[in-house]
Write a structure and sequence with these properties.
heterodimer, A: 370 residues, alpha+beta, six-stranded mixed beta sheet, 10 helices, elongated, B: mainly alpha, 0% strand, globular
């Protein structure tokens, strides 16, 4: 019994400030969708409007084609998990979970049965008598989820569900939630500012900024074909390189070629992900390593050439194998990236263009020193 | 208790520190004995100084009985009214940001900083026979000053802040997310109030009500200005004690005073008992750093 959510033209302004600006979105039944964006992008407001906790100025929210805005929050059949859980602090875990059933006057025996089942589901069988303050963050999160699921919601909404948890708990809970969703197939929308979380959990990711949807699609689609530079930058770290494009060749303003693109001519910006830069030691290399910072599995390599600084990321094992260290002369191969010309909004992929690169590299042995 | 606090403050005291700790605890206990326990003992000692028979006779005095009933009656009216106000104020001030909000918060505390006598005079100047409002009411047969309505108003004024100032910071700290959660779970407005808002404030509410009640029962200054002190009619217990004492009936005054002291002790015991019964919940929720 999954529910399809359709949102059309949803807008809201608060004190003259546009919070949401004409949001159109369809969430297919049973899907897990992430609203991804920086703080202030309107993602939480959108979630609260679906729940009925905020009202839009204009627009429509439909659950399976019926007007959800006409119903108050309590009658929409939404399970809402708050960022800080909002557990009832004066009630035990079991009473928290049973709240939605108790206010509906469900018979006591039925409630007890249901609470026991939910406690099992969230793996807290023995903690029904505890108070929220006696639980860890991850346990509170699961109680909040159980409480939301108790009313058998048509739609499950989660606001930054893992925001307040530490890294390990967050990873475990994420996997657990993914599994749970696969079993229950409730239409689920969650808000996050963490692209990794969005990509790992969601069937579809909706990237928001400034109260608008910048792009929505599967994680793969977003990664392969970002709609604009905002989406590109938000989905991962990126080096920004001012450049010009001449007959399809992309040349950094610092004076060397980066690759090819399907854009003809003009000024623009090239975006290169740190992992798209291949670094290998080369005595005659035009690049110089400025620093090597090992942080666990991956290391960040600072690179400089002709006044341009870039950051590459390599597996630490590889850094060790290649013997990379600061002040070393290296060659850098650009394996991919994106180019946005000033004249065109749509980005074009940056293609490796080593054919042009070779002669130029040979021209500049003087840069190596320093 | 004091032991624990000190131990926490000075975790690893050297030998000299242990002595210092004993001295400090000794001072605290001596202070409490001198200023709290001794006076309480004196009240009862004086009350029974002429024997149990005289004590019973003093309490059986119709004026003392009338004073006790009037005192309790005024508290029964003033405390619920100020509790309702405190709940409403904390609810509204914690949830909404508006112009003049700070002024309202400051104004709720005004009765604490104004002398009760001034509060009484203020009521006289408003409701006295020669004042416009008082004259109007008097012409309709309603007497405020030197009558019970004025005493209720004076008590209301003086006890006005107690519940509100206990609840406002608490409600602000707790926010309204729990109420929102209740609403998404299908609770109606009343259900949310009764099952979530009220219970989560209940300890603050209890302390506020106890303070409010203690003040309502014990108020002297403001009430004495507007009461007229007619024994058997407009004397509350504190005023009756004053009347008795001024009439050189010291033992009877202390007997009446023992009633007030007894009320205070009963209140304290009830509060401690409640805290003891709900100690698990209290321990859990006091630590409630649900951020």
């Amino acid at each position: 019994m999954s529910t399809r959510i359709e949102i059309a033209g949803l807008s809201k302004a608060l004190a003259g400030q546009v919070v949401l600006d004409g949001i159109d979105l369809a969430v297919p039944a049973g899907e897990l969708t992430a609203l991804l964006g920086p703080s202030g992008s309107g993602k939480t407001t959108l979630l609260r409007m679906i729940a009925g906790l905020d009202r839009p100025d204009r627009g429509a929210v439909l659950f399976d084609g019926e007007d959800a805005l006409a119903r108050p929050a309590g009658e929409r059949g939404v399970g809402f998990v708050f960022q800080h859980y909002a557990l009832f602090r004066h009630m035990t875990v079991a009473r928290n979970i049973s709240f939605g059933l108790a206010v509906r006057k469900v018979p006591r025996a039925r409630i007890e049965e249901k609470v026991a089942a939910l406690l099992r589901l969230v793996q807290l069988e023995f903690l029904g008598g505890r108070y929220p303050a006696q639980l860890s963050g991850g346990q509170r999160q699961r109680v909040a989820l159980a409480r939301a699921l108790a009313i058998e919601p048509r739609v499950l909404l989660l606001d930054e569900p893992f925001g307040a948890l530490d890294a390990v708990v967050r990873r475990d809970l994420r996997r657990w939630l993914r599994r749970l969703h696969r079993e229950m197939h409730i239409t689920t929308v969650f808000v996050t500012h963490d692209q990794e979380e969005a990509f790992e959990l969601a069937d579809r990711v909706v990237v928001m900024n400034g109260g608008r949807i910048r792009q929505s699609g599967t994680p793969m689609q977003l990664y392969r074909e970002p709609a604009d530079s905002f989406v590109y930058r938000f989905l991962g770290e990126a080096n920004e390189v001012p450049c010009r494009i001449e007959n399809g060749f992309v040349i950094a303003d610092a004076g060397f070629p980066l690759g090819r693109a399907s854009v003809r001519t003009g000024n623009g910006t090239a975006y290169l992900r740190p992992h798209q830069l291949m670094v290998r030691p080369e005595e005659t290399g035009a690049w110089r390593i400025t620093e090597v910072v090992a942080s666990g599995h991956t290391s960040r390599i600072g690179l400089a050439r002709g006044g341009l600084s870039l950051e590459a990321s390599l597996a630490t094992g590889q850094v060790l194998a290649l013997g990379l260290e600061a002040e070393m002369a290296v060659e850098v191969e650009i394996t991919g990236g994106m180019v946005v010309a000033d004249t065109a909004a749509a980005p074009a992929p940056l293609l490796p263009g080593s054919r042009l690169a070779r002669p130029h590299l040979a021209d500049r042995p003087a840069e190596r020193e320093g | 208790m004091a032991n624990n606090v000190l131990a926490a403050a000075f975790p690893a005291l050297p030998a000299g520190g242990v002595r210092a700790r004993r001295v400090l605890i000794g001072i605290a206990i001596a202070f409490i004995a001198l200023f709290l326990v001794l006076p309480l003992g004196v009240i009862f000692a004086q009350a029974f100084s002429l024997g149990a028979g005289a004590y019973a006779a003093a309490l059986a005095d119709p004026d003392v009985r009338a004073a006790l009933l009037l005192t309790l009656g005024i508290a029964v009216i003033a405390v619920p009214l100020n509790t309702a106000f405190g709940l409403a104020a904390s609810w509204c001030l914690a949830r909404f940001r508006f112009r003049g909000r700070g002024a309202i918060v400051a104004l709720t505390e005004l009765p604490l900083s104004v002398s009760p006598v001034v509060a009484g005079l203020l009521l006289v100047s408003l409701f006295g026979r020669s004042a416009v409002l008082g004259g109007f009411l008097e012409s309709h047969g309603i007497r405020v000053i030197f009558a019970v309505p004025g005493m209720i108003l004076a008590t209301l004024f003086v006890t006005f802040p107690f519940v509100a100032r206990e609840l406002i910071p608490l409600a602000e700290a707790q926010g309204s997310e729990e109420e929102q959660a209740a609403i998404t779970l299908g609770a109606s407005g009343w259900q949310t109030f009764l099952r979530v808002s009220l219970p989560k404030l209940r300890w603050g509410l209890l302390y506020g009500v106890l303070l409010c009640n203690a003040r309502a029962v014990g108020e002297f200054g403001a009430v004495s200005v507007v009461s007229g002190s007619v024994p058997g009619q407009t004397n509350t217990l504190p005023l009756e004690i004053q009347t008795l004492y001024d009439g050189y009936r010291v033992q009877a005054a202390f007997a009446a005073a023992s009633l007030l002291a007894g009320l205070a002790v009963v209140t304290l015991v009830l509060k401690a008992g409640l805290e003891w019964r709900h100690r698990d919940e209290l321990r859990a929720t006091r630590r409630a750093r649900i951020p």
